[in-house]
Amino acid sequence: MKRSIVLALLLANAACSPSSTTSTTTQSASGTLAGVDQALINKAVKPGDDFNTYASGAWFDKAEIPADRSSTGVGYDVFKVAEARNAGLIQAALKANAAAGTDERRIADYYTAFTDMTGIEQRGMAPLKGQLDAIAALRDKGALSALLGATMRADTDPLNASNFHTENLFGLFVTQDLNRPDVTVPYLMQGGIGLPDRDYYLSTTPEMASLRTAYKAYVARLLTLAGVSDAAARTDRIIALETKIATAHYDILTSQDAHQATSWKRDDFAKKAPGIDWNAYWNSASLPSQQDFSLWQPGAITKLSALVASEPMEAWQDWLTFHTINQVTAALPKAIDDASFDFNNRTLNGTPQQQPRDKRAIASVNAQLGDAVGQIYVGKYFPASSKTEIQGMVKNIVAAFDNRLAKLEWLSPATKAEGRKKLQVLIVGVGYPDKWRDYSALEIKADDPVGNLQRARLAEYQHQIAKIGKPVDRSEWWMTPQTVNAVNLPVQNALNFPAAILETPYFDAKFDAAANYGAIGAVIGHEISHSFDNLGADFDSTGRLHNWWTPADLKHFEAAGAALAAQYDAYEALPGLHLNGKQELGENIADVAGLTASYEAYRASLGGKEAPVIDGLTGDQRFFLAFGQSWRTKMREKALRARIATDVHAPAPWRVQTVRNLDAWYAAFDVKPDQKLYLTPDKRVKVW
Fold first, then answer.
1. Does the pLDDT value for residue 17 go beyond 50?
2. 139-329: what CATH class?
3. At what angle do helices 206-225 and 313-326 cross, to 10 degrees?
4. Which of 643, 655, 635 minimizes the C-alpha distance to 571?
């Protein structure tokens, strides 16, 4: 149920060639920038045959994916701006010699520890010795249950980020109860695998079989480098156990369905999920008196608990040993770090080369001390004028969506009223949160990178469980300001638009309205529309999960969704590899509905007048070209395969083709019936 626009996936593994940073946008007589880079357009391609290649084809011809990236695209242009700023802020913190206990000192010490490779090599595996000795000393399943509880972290998020993966046996997510919006509860989620998804263990395709072989080699290599004896036999036991764990898992499509979540009392665990000593587990997880829990994948929890009882202690000790090491490889000696990169980046995603240590350090500081950096970031780089202008755009796009709802003939009055109420009470955060995270209890040491990582993750866990039983904070942010992304929070009925995404070319106060609405406006519309996609539409205006639709309304909505899923199923990304329209449905609905709402908000902003022609382009042409160019992306084949297998978003080239569902696009580019993207009016999906 990924709510974010997911530029982050591109940014984590992307970089841009010099050609992607040079704009040839020109000014009109009024001084307004067109906001469209005409140098990127491939005019040899008809827009109606392939709008992605038409909008950015000249860039595709020249762009090269750097060796330390699995993809390249416009999102990384924006990310590089934020990264450079973050680097400057961290360097300033290093020079400040701030007092102990301040956030500046935490930032400086974390960065220093992470980049001190001499110290990391000298310490070797010593930072993990106590933990590995404790694993080796386990003698019974009660002690094992306690250790499993002690190592659980708040590292999953099914609602805001479609993050269903944790290496720990279970992950925890804390938010309001799906049926009681005023109650905050912990959600227990499946985990325990090192590969990205269950299909990597169970699929019979040659590609997946090859990755399993490579993973087995990696496990053995990591154990050997860490000085663990009998690595081959231990690896066999680890792979066998993880395969059983994967077999117990829900698949990604089922995991997106909030309806399968269920509530258990503490006493229910012993009866419904025997195998774990649940009292020992919850006591060690710092939840000794918690009585109410939600289980996101209850069937998997039952099966995983049974494995704790049925599988030998030796296998669990081997599994714990590997994952304890695997979760902190970036803070361990270079040979171990390199082995992790070789499998997780080179083999899984096709990235040939590791990123420089300083850039990885910046990313790690942001991951573990995000609000500390973010508070400084917005104070220096996010002007009040940008916040005001984006808030105005959000208001206009919400109004456009509301206007569409009001006019829908197929939607009954009752369903329409609740939908419009969701829009009326929608909370929109722009730039940064109202409240900042308090890191005062987090100890960061300049000579302990492993400990810093582990303590930061524990601090995040403690922050999350501290919310249990307290009133729901609907204004809470789930992204840092320096993140180039955006997100819809379904149970909070809220949106976050971090400062770092509100930059050129997504947004520029000097750009023509068409470009801003086509780029950042489509992002805003996308996030608004998530409240009404196939998953968000399950939640009412209070964030409660229940059916607020009439049967006839729901039937019409599901038919439109099925048509859109079929449209995306037909796209063939690689020979024999099609997109998964059902897996991506929520995101594709948000793309279509969001682009439509942003387009109508743009037209409304003209006040009934026609937009000026700039650079020979009409306003509508600039709108759609800005949208297309904002998604230009080049991705390595392995990364593309991984994306299709595990992600709920369509890859960028097919997100650009969203335009084929909007009537205005056909008129703007004179698209003809004999062109490849042409859909007859009755086949153009209009979910909202």
1. no
2. mainly alpha
3. 90
4. 655
